[in-house]
């Protein structure tokens, strides 16, 4: 199974490259927000454990906080992951394709994804608005649910735009496979993926030279 080369948007000066970089900035920001939420929740978890064990003073509504925060972990950075090709997919067939046939398969997959994500955006927004109008809240602390549920259509909207840009990138390659790929994740061989992951381990390069 081949992987993807985790590369940031290129410096291509075309309109496609500009759109890719613009959305990339939004994706990076959302990824940082997601990471910050994880860090804050971990800190709250430590306070919860220490307060409950040592002082018999747990944080009120802690479980509710975790439930509400799950949306940030699962959805905020989804478009960032898609741009870097960090999603998991089987490439037993696509990984062996080359040229126009490869871009045809990739284009078809993105079109299907656009439809599915579009449906999720619509019904996700409807669900969030129902929670808002009905005053839906968590069971214990009665925190409102709608902000967390609204993250789903918002995150998927960014993903939909990312998929649209990827469709643009794949279509130009489908028309002319000789063009340089722009705004699409590039597949890497198993060897390239292994070397990239090994390079991310501190000291791996020095140990390999020894």
Describe this protein's structure.
The longest helix is centred in the N-terminal third of the chain and has 40 residues, at 15-54. Helix 1 (15-54) runs antiparallel to helix 2 (62-75), helix 1 packs antiparallel against helix 5 and helix 2 packs parallel to helix 5. The protein has helices spanning 15-54, 62-75, 78-83, 99-134, 146-175, 190-199, 204-209, and strands at residues 3-5, 186-188. It contains 7 helices and 2 strands; from the N terminus they run E-H-H-H-H-H-E-H-H.
Assembly status: single chain
What is the helix fraction of residues, given as a range? 55-70%
Radius of gyration in whole Å, from Cα? Answer: 21 Å
Summed over residues and divided by their number, the pLDDT gives a mean of 84
List the uncertain runs: 1-6
Hey, roughly how much beta strand do the residues contain? under 5%
What overall form do the CA principal axes indicate? elongated
Strand line-up across the major sheet: 1-2
Note the run of SSEs as H and E: EHHHHHEHH
* SSE class: mainly alpha
Number of strands: 2
Number of helical stretches of at least 4 residues: 7
Largest sheet properties: 2 strands, antiparallel
> What is the end-to-end distance?
30 Å
């Amino acid at each position: 199974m081949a992987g993807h080369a985790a590369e940031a948007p290129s410096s291509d000066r075309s309109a496609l490259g500009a759109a890719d970089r613009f959305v990339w900035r939004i994706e990076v920001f959302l990824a940082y927000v997601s990471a910050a939420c994880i860090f804050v929740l971990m800190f709250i978890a430590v306070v919860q454990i220490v307060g409950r064990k040592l002082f018999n003073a747990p944080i009120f509504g802690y479980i509710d906080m975790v439930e509400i925060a799950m949306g940030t972990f699962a959805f905020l950075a989804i478009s960032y992951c898609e741009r870097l090709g960090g999603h998991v997919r089987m490439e037993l067939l696509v990984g062996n394709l080359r040229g126009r046939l490869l871009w045809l398969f990739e284009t078809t997959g993105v079109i299907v994804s656009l439809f599915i994500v579009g449906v999720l955006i619509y019904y996700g927004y409807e669900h969030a608005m129902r929670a808002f109008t009905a005053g839906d809240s968590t069971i214990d602390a009665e925190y409102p649910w709608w902000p967390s549920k609204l993250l789903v259509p918002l995150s998927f909207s960014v993903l939909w735009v990312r998929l649209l840009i990827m469709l643009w990138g794949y279509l130009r390659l489908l028309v002319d496979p000789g063009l340089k790929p722009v705004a699409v994740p590039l597949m890497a061989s198993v060897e390239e993926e292994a070397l990239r992951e090994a390079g991310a381990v501190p000291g791996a390069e020095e140990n390999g030279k020894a």
